[in-house]
Amino acid sequence: MKSSVMNVRLKWTHWSPKKIDREEIYLKDLLLKLVELQEIDIQIDFYQEHLDSMPVELQEMAKAIVGLRHEIDDAIALLATVEGELKSKEQDIAVEQEKIKKSERRLLSIKNLKEHDALSREIKLGKKVAGEIEEHILELIGRNEDLKKSIDKKQSDLKKYEETIVEKKEKAEQLMTKAKEAVKDLFAQKDEIVSDIDHEILKRYQTVKKARGNALAQMINGSCTGCYMIVPPQLNIRVLKQQEFLTCPNCNRILYVKQENIPENNKTDQLIN
Question: Would you identify the CATH topology of the domain 5-197?
């Protein structure tokens, strides 16, 4: 793909070193303005991203708090159920143990072997039932303790969340105020720069920015820093001369080079006689 050259030539019809110098300075100055514009746009995007993310972060924290409160309510309701069941089982085992005691007292006075065996079996069965109830009680006691620990932890977490969201909200409000002021100042700087840039150049800049994020890419050591592709040799030379606006043939970003990265033999005199 051949690189595209943006039509920003000045309206000089006769070639002369002086006129070429003026055109080069115009082009270099325009490139510097575009680079400055891009730096401002990067800062605006940075602040805007934070302005957009702050309310979302607070909303997520608020949702987490609401969810945690629901979990606590559910755990408390479950705890009440477990405690109610535990109380019921404690009553059941008390009744069962009382029945066993009565049967054991009766057993002492029974002389008939058949009745003695029947009552013994009844006592044995009662003890089995009581044992099962005791196991259930132990299980309920364990669940009861676990639920209480879980509720305590969730309530502690909830308190921390609530304290954190209050702090974050205050900080977010302060940061948002500063960010809005910064964005306002940056837009004022941007408007000042944009007023000095040709409409067609600006339109091209905005088109590439929308497609690529950044409209300009610095060329370093013969490579485009936007897409990291090697710039063709002839295009490399033309970019170093800074006599025309050129774009990367791969990513279409406007290529520029910093003065310190231009080899001495490619540098041109920037003074106007």
Answer: Helix Hairpins (1.10.287)
